[in-house]
């Protein structure tokens, strides 16, 4: 069975406060007697389900177009974290991580309305991020809009994950997706030097 973990892109989808909202307009339209319909999309690269690139938090970091796609395709594990606020070291130590390279975390963020930005989401402490890196996790996916608190100015979890070359997938939609092992396919758009890119993300059970 295939589960689509991608949030639908539309002007109704909530974005992180301060980000460019999603706009989709038809520059040509069959309804206006044009020969075909052509749409134009404007949005932040971090709107909806997206994959961060190292460039997001580092001047020397590479763009999303250079990410290793092999890291984003393969066995993964989904865990439930039914809480908001800090995902602490104690919390992540309770997760079954034996041999896991790709980890997807479902939190209450998947239950929030798609058109509402809920700032009360789950985020990682630097100690928790460091532990996951030491455990060999190389892809972290979360249904929250960020791995750091919404008011963070220095993004410590982002930077800790970056030290381990961990690829981050944010704003997944994991509602009704069962916990456990699966196959992950997460493919970002090939945006040259992009600090992030929208992605279509699915898991196969």
Notable features of this structure?
7-stranded mixed β-barrel; 30% strand; mainly beta; 205 residues; Glucose Oxidase, domain 1
Total number of helical segments?
A: 3
Largest sheet: 7 strands, mixed, barrel
Q: Residue ranges: pLDDT <50 for 5 or more in a row?
A: none
Beta-strand portion reads: 25-35%
Named CATH topology: Glucose Oxidase, domain 1
Helicity, as a percent range:
10-25%
Order of helices and strands: EEEEEEHEEHEHEEE
Adjacency order of strands in the biggest sheet? 4-10-9-7-5-11-12
CATH superfamily label:
Putative cyclase
CATH domain class: Alpha Beta
Number of domains: 1
The total beta strand count reads 12
Radius of gyration: 17 Å
Q: How far is it from the N-terminal to the C-terminal residue, by CA?
A: 5 Å
Global geometry: globular
Brief sketch in words of this structure:
The chain has 3 helices and 12 strands, in the order ββββββαββαβαβββ. It has helices spanning 89-93, 126-134, 156-163; strands spanning 2-4, 23-28, 38-42, 50-52, 73-80, 85-87, 102-106, 122-124, 139-142, 167-170, 180-188, 196-204.
Can you describe this structure?
- This protein has 205 residues and is mainly β.
- The protein has one domain: Glucose Oxidase, domain 1, CATH 3.50.30.
- The protein is 11% helix and 30% strand.
- The protein is built from three helices and twelve strands.
- The chain has helices at 89-93, 126-134, 156-163, and strands at residues 2-4, 23-28, 38-42, 50-52, 73-80, 85-87, 102-106, 122-124, 139-142, 167-170, 180-188, 196-204.
- It has a seven-stranded mixed barrel with strand order 4-10-9-7-5-11-12. Strands 2-3 form a two-stranded antiparallel sheet.
- Helix 3 links the parallel strand 9 and strand 10.
- The longest helix is centred in the middle third of the chain and has 9 residues, at 126-134.
- The protein is globular.
- The termini are close together.
- The mean pLDDT is 96.
């Amino acid at each position: 069975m295939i589960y689509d973990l991608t949030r639908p892109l539309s002007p109704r989808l909530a974005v992180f406060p301060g980000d460019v909202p999603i706009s989709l307009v038809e520059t040509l339209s069959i309804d206006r007697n044009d020969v075909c319909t052509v749409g134009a999309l404007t949005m932040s690269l971090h709107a909806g389900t997206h994959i961060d690139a190292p460039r997001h938090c580092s001047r020397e970091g590479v763009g999303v177009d250079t990410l290793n796609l092999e890291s984003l395709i393969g066995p993964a594990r989904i865990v439930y974290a039914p809480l908001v606020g800090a995902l602490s070291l104690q919390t992540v130590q309770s997760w079954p991580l034996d041999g896991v390279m790709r980890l997807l975390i479902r939190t209450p963020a998947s239950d929030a309305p798609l058109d509402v930005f809920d700032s009360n989401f789950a985020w990682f402490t630097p100690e928790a991020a460091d532990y996951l890196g030491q455990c060999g996790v190389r892809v972290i996916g979360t249904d929250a809009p960020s791995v750091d608190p919404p008011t963070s100015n220095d993004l410590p979890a982002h930077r800790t994950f970056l030290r381990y070359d961990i690829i981050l997938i944010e704003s997944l939609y994991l509602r009704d997706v069962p916990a456990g092992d699966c196959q992950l396919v997460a493919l970002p758009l090939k945006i040259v030097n992009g600090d992030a890119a929208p992605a279509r993300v699915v898991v196969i059970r």
